[in-house]
Amino acid sequence: MDRMLKNEEFATIINTIGAGVGSEFDINDSRYGKIIIMTDADTDGAHIQTLLLTFFYHYMRPLISAGMIYVAVPPLYRVFKDDKEIYAWRDNDLEDAKAKIGRGYEISRFKGLGEMDASQLWETTMNPKNRLLVRIRIDDPLLVESRVAILMGKDASLRRKWVEENVDFNEKDNFEDIK
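Below the sequence we write its predicted structure tokens.
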């Protein structure tokens, strides 16, 4: 806990939420009703999400229990031609987008949020009318404990094996459309 509190980023999160941390956390003091984690749609972004979700799980779990923690899902692609553009969140969506735009399209692959201009980021990932959010929830506390131990444990081979066997980022059914 002491080491975490010395970390500037975690200290900023704790102070911004305003509800304390650990045994002193009081959800009623939270300044926000919805906390959205927004990271790049790559391995580094997934690692940051895991760290943040583990932090919330261990030190601010009532936020998860109350359904207040979300992960924003940025698009992977922009398919465009002339004044038409379609964003694709998953590889599976890309083929549909190409077909809708028609011949002569171009494709932009977003490797990170920084590759989008401000209007694209707003339109795809921040605008409540269009964004795609995943609500984080705990359905089975024992299963969550087991997964946190694997994903945040010292044995990287266990973590890699679990991700390879259990995560399919192209499966659109894994996402809940929450505005």
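The beta strands are 35-37, 69-72, 77-81, 84-88, 106-109, 133-135.
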